[in-house]
Automatic annotation (TrEMBL):
It catalyses: a 4-O-methyl-thymidine in DNA + L-cysteinyl-[protein] = a thymidine in DNA + S-methyl-L-cysteinyl-[protein]; a 6-O-methyl-2'-deoxyguanosine in DNA + L-cysteinyl-[protein] = S-methyl-L-cysteinyl-[protein] + a 2'-deoxyguanosine in DNA. Its main location: cytoplasm. One of its GO terms (cellular component) is cytoplasm. It holds the Pfam family DNA_binding_1. Involved in the cellular defense against the biological effects of O6-methylguanine (O6-MeG) and O4-methylthymine (O4-MeT) in DNA. Repairs the methylated nucleobase in DNA by stoichiometrically transferring the methyl group to a cysteine residue in the enzyme. This is a suicide reaction: the enzyme is irreversibly inactivated. This enzyme catalyzes only one turnover and therefore is not strictly catalytic. According to one definition, an enzyme is a biocatalyst that acts repeatedly and over many reaction cycles. This is Methylated-DNA--protein-cysteine methyltransferase. It comes from the Bacteria. Belongs to the MGMT family. It is an enzyme of class 2 (transferase).
Length: 158
């Protein structure tokens, strides 16, 4: 496993990857910073990720095209795949995700899986808000979630 850090306009981002692709992205000021114990620092493994993150923060990229390798249960991976379907500048509710994976009653489980997403920003868990249009939890904090949504031009209730 490899890691590197990226200085974004919203703070330091830690990235990890294996030979299959990006395995984690975390804002280091959030609730779930990445620890580097046992990882090899190698920024050359992250050239494409860093380029696309820079384009995103410059406003030139709306969709990431990267090999992803998140680790999780089949249900979590199903939820994370649904997150990838939410376009930049839009938001969806937990109920919408539950319906999109044909499991309407799993709203709470969807919320838990959303919170366990290891690849923040690229797998856009920040685009999930409450059915009332208000912001709900985010590992990076609600202030960061609001900044990301404003950067994308998404509508939500403060």
């Amino acid at each position: 496993m490899y890691y590197c850090t990226y200085q974004s306009p919203l703070g330091e981002i830690a990235l990890t990857a294996n030979d299959k692709g990006l395995s984690a992205l975390a804002f280091q000021t959030g609730k779930s910073p990445i620890t580097y114990t046992g990882l090899i620092e190698d920024s050359s493994k992250f050239t494409q990720v860093i380029q696309q993150l820079t384009q995103y923060f410059d406003g030139d990229r709306k969709h990431f095209e990267l090999p992803l390798a998140p680790e999780g249960t089949n249900f979590q991976k199903q939820v994370w795949q649904a997150l990838l379907e939410i376009p930049c500048g839009e938001t969806k509710s937990y109920g919408w995700i539950a319906k999109s994976i044909n499991n309407e009653k799993a709203v709470r489980a969807v919320g838990t899986a959303n919170g366990a997403n290891p690849i923040a920003l690229i797998v856009p868990c920040h685009r999930v808000i409450g059915s009332n249009g208000k912001l709900t939890g985010y590992a990076g904090g609600l202030a960061l979630k609001a900044k990301l949504l404003m950067h994308e031009g998404a509508q939500f209730k403060p």
